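Our consortium's second objective concerns turning raw sequence data into structural hypotheses that experimental partners can test. To show how far this objective has progressed, the report includes one record in full. It was chosen at random from the queue rather than selected for favorable results. The single chain below, 151 residues long, was entered without modification.
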Amino acid sequence: MKKLQVAMLSLLITGCGGGVVAVQPTSTPAPPTATVVVASPTVASAPATSVPTQTPAIARPTTTPAARVENVDIRDNHFIPSELTIPVGTRVQWANNGENIHDVVANDRSFSSNSLSTGARFTFTFQTRGRYEYFCTPHMAEGMVGVIVVE
């Protein structure tokens, strides 16, 4: 009912060509509003009238950007590259392209794969800065080690 009264009062004042009128709600505060300014079409120098309206919702993206992916090739008894420097949030994917079974295990046990047969892959996303040394359990004695540096 109040909205109808405010609208009628606004139309009455606008039709008379009166001064600037700002219509303000007199009851409890409404949710945040935006002001729409409407200029009078009949008189070029007529002041504007402002009418509060509901603020439209702002659309926000719902998807996150795709993570960067770096690849480490697992060959028999070595990782290629053996050292890799990446930014935080990067996914590293190890792919066993050798003929033997391998795994990927961090020295601090922050990540660890199962045994990877030929063609198998293991992926880990690095969310924290640091130096991550890792090895292949069956071939560590042969020096199959690597390092991921996260900056």
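The partners drew two points from this record. Residues 5 and 26 are 12 Å apart (CA to CA). The chain has two domains: 2-54, 69-150. Both points have been shared with the crystallography group to help prioritize constructs.
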